[in-house]
């Protein structure tokens, strides 16, 4: 996005690297955190430890990815967590209604993806076509989606069938299922990054007026961004369901703001036009690693939230400062 | 508000222009909603009910005053930390006064200092480190939530002094409790400040064009920091009043005011981009929001239906206000 400017001074090697790969500062922070985790609790960096971390935070990674696509275009989705809740209860109820067989799981997942997509399109239409302000409009839709989730399942607690969570937490050929999921995810993201849509979203976020004048269908692109966000929020809901093995109409609410934090930690600009999906995944990992580190260093339980909050705030600040210095 | 460009479009009739003002729209909607509420459940628009709605609206409106200032200041100004400040202030106030009237004044001082300090940190992060307000205040919210857990673990939840509870819930003057008069006073002060003082003009200046304001000698950073501090102080005051309203503080009482305070500002006709709008509209916006919620609690539908109707109505109402401009080549 920045290549169009005149290269007046040749920036140094490191600076150029960060400009090319905005997620590098996040990667360094994540590696340091990983090393600290290993120092305080050697078993946390073992195969089992990493598997556990992935299993717990795959949902947040998915939701951070979801958020990234709307942030690309300079938008934001405060309903992402509510979509997770809705899809979670929809698939759990569907699987239960159909008897919990293998087929019911597949059918429920299909319905879950459709639900996420529909929510995303609603958000896109409301924000891009009706031109409401993204922050307040997606907050309003989040209330609506939460209402829907409460309608589908008024009280938390319906269990997911064993076929579902055993698969999510299980192993195939000695390798945990979540690692297959990560590989598939990586391929998907690689393909998505090479599609026209990614570039178009970034172009809209960089300068919507310029994108419009060069003939891009800005409204449609933004709606597609929200639709993609809805789909990945559905995937996040699958991970949540696999991890918690039950339905809860309010399960995703707390995840929304963390997904925004993960995107910023990953080096993407909230103003749009600049960012990477990998960065958001690393950002979600950073949040997970901070949470586990605070636990491993033996912080008294009542102090854990405060230390986590401070560490995340500091990481957010550090990431933004380093990123800006690299781009300045 | 109305553009005075050279090539004037056919002048809209003054009546229509008047009717399209956000404040007028909000007031009309308030009256309509009150009538609707009375029709749905008789007694909804009784004096006592309206008084209760006014008190809740005052709580929201006081938070929204700070939010309004931060948003007016532009540069994507927003304060997500108000929820945390309200909860923290309620628990500080409860412990400082601990049920005694003599502790009210020290409690107010302590809460205002705490709120101002939190706002100062937000403002410093936003101006000196140039962290986007959304990120800075989001991070601050996380810190405050953690701090609340620590505080709650060490000390009891505290008690409101009788004087404070009376101030919030008992009639004081002309049958209205003190908190409503406080809200009216804040409204008058805000209107005076925004329209008649240099400081007020500076807020609009940095909100509409920061660069130009800087060139014209406005101390942009100092003004912006002060806006975040005021937001913290207003949230702290709301926290004290909330303690008086509920008697004792409980976990995360403030969080339910965070996003509604932003919506009240938007309903009041201040766009999130900042630089224009005012507080009078925000007061109407807060009333509108509270009455809407009031109607939904009196109507007999499940929680799920209530939330769906609330979300859909919010979207519908937003269509009346500051929609973005269509793209033109």
Morphology call of chain A: globular
Q: What is the CATH-assigned architecture of chain B?
A: Orthogonal Bundle
Low-confidence stretches of chain A: 1-8
Largest sheet of chain B: 2 strands, antiparallel
The assigned structural class of chain A equals mainly alpha
User: How are helices and strands ordered from N to C of chain B?
Assistant: HHHHHHHEEHHHHHHH
DSSP E strands of chain A, number: 2
Write the layout of secondary structure elements.
The complex is a heterodimer of chains A (328) and B (329).
Chain A: H1 13-20, H2 24-40, H3 47-72, H4 80-97, H5 102-129, H6 134-152, H7 162-169, E1 171-172, E2 175-176, H8 177-193, H9 196-206, H10 208-213, H11 218-244, H12 255-265, H13 277-296, H14 301-327
Chain B: H1 14-19, H2 22-40, H3 47-72, H4 82-97, H5 104-127, H6 133-154, H7 162-169, E1 171-173, E2 176-177, H8 178-196, H9 198-208, H10 210-215, H11 220-246, H12 258-267, H13 279-298, H14 303-318
Antiparallel strand pairs in B: 1-2
What does this structure look like?
The complex is a heterodimer of chains A (328) and B (329). Chain A has 328 residues and is mostly helical. Chain A has a single domain, classed as ABC transporter involved in vitamin B12 uptake, BtuC. Chain A has helices at residues 13-20, 24-40, 47-72, 80-97, 102-129, 134-152, 162-169, 177-193, 196-206, 208-213, 218-244, 255-265, 277-296, 301-327, and strands spanning 171-172, 175-176. Chain A has a two-stranded antiparallel ribbon with strand order 1-2. Chain A starts with 12 loop residues before the first helix and ends with a helix. With 329 residues, chain B is mainly α. Chain B has a single domain, classed as ABC transporter involved in vitamin B12 uptake, BtuC (Orthogonal Bundle). Chain B contains 14 helices and two strands, in the order H-H-H-H-H-H-H-E-E-H-H-H-H-H-H-H. In chain B, strands 1-2 form a two-stranded antiparallel ribbon. Chain B is globular, with a radius of gyration of 20 Å. The relative contact order of chain B is 0.19. Mean pLDDT of chain B is 85; it is low at 1-6. Classes of the chains: A mainly alpha (328), B mainly alpha (329). Chains A and B meet through helix 6, helix 10, helix 12 and helix 14 of A and helix 6, helix 12 and helix 14 of B.
């Amino acid at each position: 996005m920045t290549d169009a400017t005149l290269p007046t001074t040749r920036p140094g090697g490191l600076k150029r690297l960060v400009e090319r790969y905005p997620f590098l500062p996040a990667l360094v922070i994540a590696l340091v955190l990983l090393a600290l985790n290993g120092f305080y609790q050697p078993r946390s960096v073992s195969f089992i430890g990493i598997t556990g971390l992935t299993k717990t935070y795959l949902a947040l990674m998915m939701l951070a990815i979801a958020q990234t696509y709307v942030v690309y275009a300079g938008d934001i989705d405060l309903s992402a967590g509510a979509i997770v809740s809705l899809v979670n209860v929809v698939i759990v109820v569907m699987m239960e209604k159909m008897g919990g067989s293998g087929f019911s799981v597949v059918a429920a997942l299909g319905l879950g993806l459709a639900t996420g997509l529909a929510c995303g399109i609603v958000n896109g239409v409301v924000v891009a076509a009706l031109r409401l302000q993204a922050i307040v409009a997606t907050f309003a839709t989040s209330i609506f989606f939460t209402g829907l989730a409460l309608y589908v399942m008024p009280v938390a607690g319906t269990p997911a069938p064993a076929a579902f969570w055993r698969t999510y937490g299980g192993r195939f050929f000695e390798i945990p299922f979540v690692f297959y999921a990560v590989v598939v995810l990586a391929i998907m993201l690689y393909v998505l990054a090479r599609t026209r849509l990614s570039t178009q979203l970034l172009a809209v976020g960089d300068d919507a007026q310029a994108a419009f004048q060069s003939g891009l269908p800005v409204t449609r692109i933004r709606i597609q961004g929200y639709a993609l966000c809805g789909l990945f929020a559905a995937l996040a809901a699958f991970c949540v369901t696999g991890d918690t093995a039950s339905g809860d109409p309010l399960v995703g609410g707390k995840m929304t703001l963390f997904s925004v934090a993960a995107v910023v930690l990953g080096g993407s600009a909230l103003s749009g036009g600049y960012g990477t999906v990998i960065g958001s995944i690393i950002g979600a990992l950073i949040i997970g690693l901070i949470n586990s580190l605070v636990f491993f260093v033996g912080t008294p339980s009542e102090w854990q939230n405060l230390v986590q909050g401070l560490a995340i705030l500091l990481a957010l600040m550090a990431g933004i400062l380093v990123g800006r210095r690299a781009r300045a | 508000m109305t553009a005075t460009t050279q090539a004037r479009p056919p002048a809209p009739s003054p009546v229509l222009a008047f009717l399209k003002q956000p404040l007028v729209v909000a007031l009309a909607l308030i009256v309509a909603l009150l009538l609707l509420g009375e029709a749905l459940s008789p007694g909804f628009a009784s004096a006592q009910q309206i008084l209760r709605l006014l008190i809740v609206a005052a709580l929201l409106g006081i938070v929204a005053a700070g939010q309004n200032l931060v948003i007016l200041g532009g540069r994507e100004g927003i304060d997500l930390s108000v929820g945390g400040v309200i909860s923290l202030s309620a628990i500080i106030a409860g412990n400082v006064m601990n049920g005694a009237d003599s502790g009210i004044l020290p409690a107010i001082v302590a809460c205002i200092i705490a709120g101002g300090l939190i706002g100062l940190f937000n403002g410093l992060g936003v101006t000196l480190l140039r962290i986007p307000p959304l990120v800075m205040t989001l991070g601050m919210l996380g810190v405050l939530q953690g701090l609340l857990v620590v505080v709650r673990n060490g000390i009891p939840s505290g008690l409101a002094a009788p004087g404070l509870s009376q101030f919030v819930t008992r009639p004081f003057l002309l049958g209205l409790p003190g908190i409503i008069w406080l809200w009216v006073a804040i409204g008058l002060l805000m209107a005076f400040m925004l329209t008649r003082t240099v400081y007020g003009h500076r807020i609009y200046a940095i909100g509409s064009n920061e660069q130009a304001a800087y060139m014209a000698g406005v101390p942009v950073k100092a003004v912006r920091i002060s806006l975040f501090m005021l937001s913290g102080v207003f949230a702290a005051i709301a926290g004290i009043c909330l303690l008086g309203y509920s008697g004792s503080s409980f976990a995360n009482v403030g969080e339910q005011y965070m996003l509604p305070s932003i919506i009240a500002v938007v309903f009041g006709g201040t766009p999130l981009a900042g630089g224009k709008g005012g507080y009078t509209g925000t007061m109407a916006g807060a009333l509108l929001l509270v009455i809407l919620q009031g109607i939904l609690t009196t109507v007999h539908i499940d929680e799920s239906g209530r939330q769906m109707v609330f979300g859909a109505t919010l979207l519908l109402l937003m269509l009346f206000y500051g929609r973005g401009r269509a793209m033109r080549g």
